[in-house]
Amino acid sequence: MHADLINYLTGFVTEERKKRFDEIIQNRTRHVSIALENIFQPHNASAVLRSCDCFGIQDVHIIENENKYTINPDVALGSYKWLTMHKYNKATNNTLACIESLKAKGYAIAVTSPHKDSYTIETVPLNKKLALFFGTEMQGMSDQLEKNAEVFVKIPMMGFTESFNISVAAALSMYTLSNRLRKENINWALSETEKEEIMLQWLRNTIPRSELLEKDFTEKNK
Fold first, then answer.
1. β-bridge partners, 152
2. pLDDT at residue 222, as a whole number
3. What's the chain's average pLDDT?
4. d(CA 198, CA 202)
5. Cα(63)–Cα(36) distance, rounded to whole angstroms?
6. What is the arithmetic mean of pLDDT over 81-99?
7. CATH number for the domain formed by residue range(s) 34-203
8. CA quadruple 83, 25, 104, 185: dihedral, nearest 10
9. Which tens digit of pLDDT belongs to each residue from 124-166?
10. d(CA 153, CA 139)
11. What is the percent of the chain with per-residue pLDDT over 70, rounded to a whole number?
12. In this structure, are residues 32 and 129 in contact, taking their beta carbons and an 8 Å threshold?
């Protein structure tokens, strides 16, 4: 059904846009996902979304404990339309809810921290799917996140400053991990089913009033 609907909706976008979608979907991955815990500066979180899109990281997990995430459109530049956003804001412990959800999908829980020396971003194992968590700008990772982390990752630094800005740290991490995925013998690409789901999402976000077209298609194909 997805394939037929995609074929129908594709008729409402330009050939150039269709070609661009086809090119970009080939470089999307879910082997690495990004999770943001309780980020309170919208411009930083929005910059992370922009980097995720640029480096082909499809899934972003937003943990809203004390802070509700809002998109800064001037920074994100529409990148959120091309990503799959997962928000955690309804549980008693949203951090744990996110961790459990990712573990159930086969992800190793990795936390960026300048105080841990287990791995660098160049050496962290990628044989298993990796969910890379970033904590708040001021406080870093929560105790709950540190307790449940399976892997600690640091970005080597050579200056006096203790840590990178979160958006910079995320961009550096994704650049390195994205390059490693494509150089190492890892099955990082999306499945055909995932490609269809994401392609449908992109078409819905691109075509004005796509829900009406979809309703019409459904009625005609009952």
1. 111
2. 78
3. 87
4. 6
5. 6
6. 88
7. 3.40.1280.10
8. -130
9. 999 999 999 987 665 667 788 889 999 999 888 777 677 778 8
10. 17
11. 87
12. yes
| DSSP strands (E only) in the chain | 32-37, 59-63, 84-88, 108-112, 119-120, 130-134, 151-154
Both structure tokens of 150: 């399976």
**Residues 6 or more apart whose Cβ sits within 8 Å of residue 135:** 37, 38, 111, 112, 141, 142, 145
Strands 84-88 and 119-120: unpaired
Q: How far apart are CA 22 and CA 68, in angstroms?
A: 34
CA distance 195 to 102: 20
Cα–Cα distance for residue pair 116/120, rounded to 1 Å? 9
Q: Residue 138 has what pLDDT?
A: 58
